[in-house]
Amino acid sequence: MDYDAIIIGGGPGGYATAIRLGQYGKKALLIEENKIGGECLNYGCIPSKALIEMADSINYLKEMPGVELSFNIDMKKWQEWKWGMINKLTSGVEKLVKSYGGNVIKGKGYIVDKNKVKVDNEIYTAENLVVATGSIPIKVKGLDSSMFNRDILDVDHIPESLVIIGGGYIGIELGTAFRKLGTDVTIVEMMPTILPGIDQDLTRYVERKVSSLGIKVLTSTRVQEVKKDSSYKVTLSDGSEIKAEMVVLSIGREPNTKGFGLENLNLEMDGKFIKTDKRKKTSVEGVYAVGDISGPPLLAHKAFYDAMIAADNISGNENEIDYKAMPFVIYSDPEIAITGERTDNFVNVPLATNGRALGMNASLGVYRIYTDEKLVVKGGAFVLPRASELISEISLAVESGLTSRDIGLTIHPHPTLSEGVQESSEATYGKSLHYKSSR
After folding, report:
1. How many helices (DSSP H) and strands (DSSP E) are in the chain?
2. Which of 156, 197, 240, 328 is most buried, most CB within 10 Å of its CB?
3. pLDDT tens digits, residue range 3-22?
């Protein structure tokens, strides 16, 4: 065999598997048809957060009392910077794979069987095969002319008007960012509320901000058709029409299973996803699947974690997945970050009790830690600025079996947003310093 493992797909799951295998001294071949880094680094996580960061920075000053702000955005220059930043990341990842003894091939891999993969008429062999082909945007007939996340994140100017079909996390993130940059934004969501699947007692803070920004939200509304001429025309199910310069379809993603010979493996499937066990093994011996292709949640950090488990088992180090503290973040305004499981034992500590937040002109949000009856931390949910940076403390507490008293007795620096984590922990046993609960 040429390799210990061949990995198809160079996104987070694929490149992480290659790096992890190399760290164990295993020889890996990473095959990527497009760009190393996959959807996340090139077209999703990284560029979208870069856009959000710019929008948030501008809006922060616009909303700060006493500040008069005028600004000009040269999106062509920004795109040059963005791609330069992304290329540094992706080239760094490729160098890491190679530094651990792995090889990288740019080309379309095609599975011949579980030990053979063809690229440009050359056959490569390996003892193990890892499928890491990720996911693709869901497309709908009649809405084919819509843009997708790749398109909207690569625009050369800020559109005057934008319709986003889908009020899930991607739609809310993009809609909020472009509104802050001056675009007239309309979000169309078929469900009764935005961010379906997230607790409404958390999303209500985002709904208030979306409203205050002037974003028009049409819930319980379906899009019938999208047509493109000189501009876009969106026809709703009630027959009404919306005209916009750009239209983005963002109604979710599905696993990328076609075009690379997956059918030749005859794997057991779980719906559209590849079914795997706790070791990321498929129904065929020596074949593994990691990341989006192996089931939800469709998150890059879940793919990193899957990669570690698969690499461990390929290398003879038995390990099993444990998703009990899998964080989920929505980069809305305010951000929503959730980890672990929800229980009935929690106290809502308002962001408005936090001095650092008030100094940031931010008061919309809440800290919440979930415990059991013995105060063992089971999860948490934050709706506030930089919630994404704070949630890992709760994930660590869940994984370590800590109690809310352990967090409450941990000295947090003042003044910081992280103090709210301590306060919300103290609140679960009635000792929050700056907030008196009526519970």
Report:
1. 12, 23
2. 328
3. 999 999 999 999 999 999 99
